[in-house]
Specification:
The chain is α+β, with helices and mostly antiparallel strands. About 20% of the residues lie in helices and about 30% in strands. The mean pLDDT is about 95.
C-alpha cells in the first residue's frame, strides 16, 4: 500500500525531503505507522514523540487507520510568539 508523506520544519531534514511516496505492508493505525517510520527513517525516531500526525488533512489519534493513497503529514510542535 502506498501513502504520501508530507514533512514540515525539523521533520523535513529527518525525512530527507519535504514529501515522498512510501510503501507500507498494509493498512496501519497511526500508532503502527509511527513504529514503521522509526524503522524506515531512523533520523525521525527522536522527533516522533513530539510530532502530530494528520491523515488526509485531519489531525489523527493513535487509533486512526491509514489507508491506501492517504496523505500523511508530519507536524512538529509550533512555537513562537
Amino acid at each position: 500500500m502506498q501513502v504520501r508523506l508530507l514533512a514540515f520544519a525539523s521533520a523535513v531534514e529527518a525525512l530527507g525531503a519535504p514529501s515522498r511516496d512510501w510503501q507500507l505492508p498494509g493498512e496501519l493505525s497511526v500508532r503502527e505507522l509511527r513504529q514503521q517510520l522509526a524503522i524506515e527513517f531512523p533520523a525521525l525516531a527522536p522527533l516522533l514523540a513530539r510530532l502530530a500526525i494528520a491523515v488526509d488533512g485531519t489531525l489523527a489519534s493513535s487509533e486512526t487507520r491509514v489507508r491506501e493513497g492517504a496523505e500523511v503529514a508530519l507536524l512538529p510542535p509550533v512555537s513562537g510568539g
